[in-house]
Amino acid sequence: MPTLHLKKQQLINGYRRFDPTRGMEYTLDLQLEVVNQKGHSRSITKRVHLVRPLSLIEIIPMPYVTEATRVHIIIPLTAEDRSFVNHFLEVFASNAFETSENAILTFLFIYDPEEAQHVNHNDIFADVKNQINVYERKYPTVKIPWISVKTEIPSQIKFMDIISKKHPVDTLFFLAHINTNINTEFLNRCRMNSINNWQVFFPIHFQEYNPDVAYHNQPRPATVDLVKDAGHFDRRSFDEACFYNSDYMATRSRMVADVQENEDILESLDIYDIFVKYSGLHVFRAVEPALHQQYRYQSCNPKLSEDVYHRCVQSNMEGLGSRSQLAMLLFEQEQGNST
């Protein structure tokens, strides 16, 4: 076989792109000098594709899973979330109802004690229930169940205790948020990354920035791309989770002794905390490009634990805009004040 020697002469073009699931990807157009065994040479142009991975690649043996599992999507709703339901249902209908996605959507209506007292003659979720009826009539094969709970402090664990008892042990849950845009690509990753008696999945969604900051004095785009000026991966948020009911039930059973000593931990911990502390399972947390959330200011409940409350506050602050966008707004404000 003839031997060829390649020598780089110059870089003609270069392109790089950060893929949050792989690392930094490069596409390079190189001008190379090719020299054969006889010493003859000529110049050629070659395109190469390279990747610099995020970390060392390690092959981990995993149990077999499929993309055929039905996903039960749980959406908790408080009074302040009602205005987002219409958009959520529109997106979900096009991504799931119209494609016959193997998923069941369930709403969890959260009433505080005062709201619960007036539910018979002034139900704060009456309009949402009417919207559900509209979609069930539009899609005759679709049923959207809902569950009502009354509580002073909206605790993830207390909600899941109620939901868990209403579903079989082999149910795959996706605990989501009303601002989460759910699609088939993500649901398949939820199925593949949640492994019964082995692993739970906590995706890190892409959080869009406040459009008043990100697109200051600019027209807002019809669709938001996954770029650094449009938003960021919100590592402070642990609202979304994929896990099997049997794993949740086993984890809760290991909490019994601690709960008897201090019942307040049901309100101070969230689902992520209990899986990390009590489950013994792999807790897989990774950025998820297919999971987007629209911008909204979150109401942080000071009655929850200090850690959960602090994460919520930090998420609000970091979700306003990038540092350069915020700096530009401050600069414009300072210029305006000085004139």
TrEMBL record:
Pfam families: CHGN (PF05679). Belongs to the chondroitin N-acetylgalactosaminyltransferase family. It is found in: Golgi apparatus, Golgi stack membrane. Keywords: Golgi apparatus, Membrane, Signal-anchor, Transferase, Transmembrane, Transmembrane helix. PANTHER family: CHONDROITIN SULFATE SYNTHASE 2, CHONDROITIN SYNTHASE. This is Hexosyltransferase. It is a single-pass type II membrane protein. InterPro entries: Chond_GalNAc, CS_glycosyltransferase. Its EC number is 2.4.1.-.
